[in-house]
Structure formats: structure tokens, C-alpha cells
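Table S2 (continued). Query chain:
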Amino acid sequence: MDILEWYKKVFDVFEEYFDNEQCLKHVGQIYQSDRWFDFSHFRETADYCAEQMKRTGLCEVDMLELSADGRTAYGDWVMPRAWDVSGGILKAVCSDGAEIMLADYKETPACLMMYSAPTPPGGVEAEIVLVDDPSRVDCAEVKGRFIFTDKAPKDVISLARKGGALGIISDYLPVFLGARDSRDDCKDAFRWENNFIYPLNDTGLFGFSLSPRAGCGLRELIDRSAKQGKAIQLCAEVNTRFYDGIVYTVSGLIPGTCLPAEEVMICGHLYEPGANDNASGCGVILELAAVLQKGISEGKLPKPSRSIRFVMGFECIGLMGYYINYHERISRAIGAINVDMIGSSAEDKAKLHIWHNPLSNWSFTDMLLPSLIRAYAGYSGTQIDFSETGFAIGDNLLADPMIGVPTVSMVMHPAESYHSSLDTLDRVDPMVLHRNGIIAGTFLCFLTMPEKSSSEWLLENIDNKIPSLMTDTSTGLNVFSEMEFEKISNDKLGDNASKMIPRRKIAGTLSLHTLNSDLKDSCRWFPFYNYHLNCPLFWTDGKRTLYEIACLTAIELKKDNFEQLLAELMEYYLFLEMLDYLYIERIPAISGSSGSDFVEKEGSVNINLNGKNVIKFNNIEGYKSR
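Corresponding output:
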């Protein structure tokens, strides 16, 4: 069959069977439960998705139970402790007794920071401390008070915890060039804060997000009252509870015929409050399952040679839990696609991005998905504006070479409504769901229903793509070639790095959430959703030296200061070795005079780099909680 004929046949089936109304209904049902973002509602979401998979006729429909206790790690990702909400309000109390409602969870769920601790019955009332720069505020100033800041909550949590603050109020709302250019564009948007004291809130702190308008109003009220010699108090009542619970990763299967053990996966994350992020992705997955089942059963599509697995759960953690429980199954997967935020309306100002695999696990799928987008654009006579970018962390972490499943992503990010109360069902466009769903579905067909012509077409596309790949690689190599190799090659640092062969002990990207609060406060590395700190680990295969890893990292990330990168990686890798994330073989063993020492004395650890003490932790025992 000619490739154009194959495409037309597949596209025709999807155009006929993909039900926009039903897909939007799935999105709406997921959104209606997930918008409350607590674990009792997450159970409702999981039940709905599993039931829809069963109704569609998928095999092996599974609700994998994962412990939600704030301690259990899947890889290095710790599942947060289960948390339920029955209400949360924040009011300003004027000196004359008048009350002004600032935030109400039942009206705007996103206003309550996820994993907020409960207040005593009846709530708490206290003064406000404005914090613009946490480093310039003494802990005593916040004791028993509310912190009000325009900074991200994570930037003031340490101050709040150490100082004994009651809670954190923030009107922080980041901007995204081209999507959310100014806070003024979204004056009534409440940011959804999903990493508030994560994964285990043992501080008693709670938090509220305010919209820019509400935050501005509160500041004006504080200033006006201060000029009158009066004080403003805040009153908060938070009704939440923590408990050791369960969260589910939901999956189902269309079995293959010739090669059933080989799987192609489509992944998306549940349990976030946005209609677009990510009820849209999971709604599309449910509709694709129905389209593929119907197309195959009616003979419009061939039976797949390989199996198709549909997986949905907690972002990253749920997928890592799935991997830990079914690693043998996943080891036989040949590829995957992650769909995240794929229904944005024009109002949301979001552009479609294709995230490639990491360079350490490059795959033909990096070229396949963009080629399918262009093919569908030609078929439908529409223009599809999209861009291709390097790897970024999401439900594509199966692409880690230690796991080995090439995973590309379709993501419409950033969006104006991203992680805010604006991410509602009216921001989802059924035609965008339709378009992106058909492209993702065709990707699954291509990998599971192969035709000779499709393989030949793919080879031709790869051949045509090679010049641009060489150009992109040359950019990294040119930057790399300008580095001062002579200086490094004769330096003790470079010599030491050439004699160190690190080996990873944990699959998947790192989060360092297993560290306790004291070490987190002292640590200068934050690999959670940070590819720059995970990229070198992806190159760490137990054979390459640290020097080689640094070289490859510099090329992939286009780093232009190799000596600085190598020094940072030396420090970072010794830190990870100290915490048992890595084993480093030294050939020969590094001596105390070699320029880089890892010294343990009297319950403390020092890491010295070329004579400079760069990091010290006392009483290292007990710093790591896992």
C-alpha cells in the first residue's frame, strides 16, 4: 500500500469515528472531579476512567494501587500523603470589625494551596507581615503571623517553618512570554500551587493564593490602615485532613496479534484541576481507545501486531509507580507518546510543542511525530503551527536510558490559563482535541500496524532530516570546541573526572524529596522537574567517565563554559554519592592530594574542590529519610 493511501485510510477512520462531543464529555467529567484536587475526588476520577475503559472493551483494565503516605518512593519520586478538603476561607478583618472575603475554596478551589494543613476549629486570626525578600526578614518577625508575599511560596517556606508563622499568603503569578505577558492580563487568576510543602506537610502550615487584583486590594488596605494608625488582621479557616491513603494509576490494553508482548504506550496525567491541564489529554486517551477498538472490530483498521497500552495516573509519580510494578512489561515497550494539555482554545494563546527524547536515548519517533503532524495538515488542508524542542520532564520519563522506552510528547504549553483558576472547560476547543487526538492515534497505528511503505517513508523522512540534525549537533559541537581543552586536560579536576566512573542506582529522574527539611534547606541542587540536573544522569551508563559525561552534557545543553560545568558536576556527583544515589568507581582511587577530596570526619562530611571547601553537612546520619 502506498504511504499516502495508508495515511488517508487511517485519517479517514479517525475522522469518521472520533466523536468530539464524547471526547469533550470525558474532559468535562475528569475536570469536574479533579478540579477539587483532593484524594477522595481523585478516586472518583480513577473510577470514571477505569469504567470508560471497560465499556470500550479494553483488556486488562487495571487500577494499580500506589501508597499515598508521604514516605513511599517510586524511584526517587515520593507519593504525597493523601489529603482531603472540606473547605477553606481567608478574610481580612478591619479594625472596625468589617470583614472582606479574599479567598474561598468552595468558590475558587485553586485559591487553597495543595497539602495545606488544617487550622483549629473556628480558624485562626493574626497580624500580617509583608515579605518581599525572605533573606532580609528575621524569623522572630513572622512568629504567630501570616506571611504575605509576591514571591513563590517555596521561596518563603523555610522562613515560615523556622520562624513559626501560621501560614503563607501569596499573589505570585508567573508570566509566560506570548501567553501570559503580564499579571495585568489575568487580574482575576488564582494560581494553583501544587507543591506546597510536598510530599509531607509536617509543619502545620497552610497557604492561600490570591489573584493579582485581590493581592493589590489587600496591599492597598494595609497601606490605608497603616496611615490611619490602624492594623489589619487576617482570619483563615482551613478544613483539611491528612491520612495514609491510596492513589491509582489506571491502564487498559488492546492486545497485539503477532507481537503481543511488545507494546506501544500512550500516557497522560490525571489529578490536576485544569480542564486543559490535563483533563484534555486523558479525555483524548479515552476517546482514542474507543476509536481504535471500533475501527479494529469493524475491520476499518487492521488488527495491531503490537499491543497498545493506555496509562493514566499522577504525573510522573504514577508512571514511576507503574514502572516499578511492571518493569518487565515496560522493558518490552518499543515506544510511547505523552499527551499533556492538548485542547487549548485560541483564547489560551498556547502553541503545540513536540518534546523530543533526550539525546542520550534518541529515537526515530522524534522525527515520526512531526512528520505525522505535517501529513495531517496536508490531508485536512489546515495549517498547524507547532515547534520541536528538546527533552523536558513530564510523563515522558520512561525515555530515561535506564528505563529505555523512547517517549515523545505533545504539549500545548505555556498557556494563559496554566496552573490557575482560568483553566476551565470553556478554554478547551473540541476541534483542537480532534486534531491532536487524530495525530496521536495515528502515531499509535504507525507503530503497531506497520506497512512496508510506511517503513520506507519513515526512512526517507529520516534521511531528509539528517542535514538539520547535523546542523543542530554542530551548534553544540562548535560551542564545545571553543572551550579551553588544554587547560582542562592538564588540570587536576579534569584528571580526576577522567578517573571516575559513576553508576546510577535509581531509575527515573531525581526529585531529592527523600531528603529531610534541614538538608533540603542547605542543598543547592533542585533536580525536581529540572532537566539540566538530570541530563548528565541520563548519560551515566556505568561505562562513561565523569569527564565524558560532562562532555556529552555540554553538547546536549549547549553549555559554553566547560570548566565550570565539570566543576559543578564533580560537586553534584559527590553529593549524590554521599546520599547513595550513585556508586563511583575510582580508577585509580582518588587520593587526598589529587585536587578533589571526599572526606568524612567525626560525623560530618566535607566536599573540597581544588582546595576550596564547597559544601559541608554535619551529622549526615538521618539526613536521608528513605
